[in-house]
Design goal:
The complex is a heterodimer. Chain A is α/β, with parallel strands linked by helices. Chain A is built from five helices and eleven strands. Chain A has a single domain, classed as Rossmann fold. Chain B is elongated, with a radius of gyration of 16 Å. Classes of the chains: A alpha/beta, B alpha+beta.
Amino acid sequence: MKSAVVQLPGLNRDRDMIAALTRIGGKPPATVWQTDTELPDVDLIVIPGGFSYGDYLRCGAIAARMPVMRAVADAAARGVRVLGVCNGLQILAEAGLLPGVLMRNASLKFVCRTVRLQVENASTVFTRHYQKGQVISCPVAHHDGNYFADAGTLNSLEDGGRVVFRYAEGTNPNGSINNIAGIVNEAGNVLGMMPHPENLIEAAHGGTDGRALFESALEIAA
Amino acid sequence: MIRARITVTLKNGVLDPQGVAIGHGLASLGFAGVRSVRQGKIFDIELDGSDRAKAKADLEAMCRKLLANMVIEDFAVELLP
């Protein structure tokens, strides 16, 4: 499967994401700049982490209004897989491709550590190489990962199995409601998550728990 | 030219950890009796033209489309004299 990585000023995890997609997918992803209005013909679009536009106004708010995001929204509506990690999730939420919002961490501190994630839904196209209930390690590095949504939205996320990753008991680093770490859209082809699976894909990273996410999304046999 | 001030605040019920921290800061400076602090944002905007009704409508659209995140924030538009 072919993939593309969206690049915007202020993102800084794009090279990590390109390295992960190249290593696992066997070929480098295309790259797309913020002003591009058309995307290459790909099966997976990834919005990586960082601090697009310096987090001005709100995290992801300006990036979400850039031309490339209209193209991403069109692709998502056609069923193309879209993965947003960290700032990528914030951008997807600001763009309305995922519900809710990422607020300042409850501790007010930037958190940079490895957390435990429980895989709540292993039947999405992004998680089918995991087991439901499996607990994996994953690094986080963010200041605004405190997921919040109104009660109606939360109910529909929970009832629809759309909470894909939850921080395991006692490891919630940011105060997110219901310990939410990652969610999918209703159609199941857009996943946003705060943790960084691209930073845990080979022994040198200290573990490989993130690999299965890319193997799932790129449909590569584990 | 029309001048406007837009105020964006968190909706009631949305936890504001920054406001809480500011409240703690005030208390540590010795200001007693500060019950709560909610922080927000102010945008001062200058617009071309003189149609105040259109300006109000445009500013409200700006709030809904970018300046406020309607999931957690409310906004108020004030046209200045």
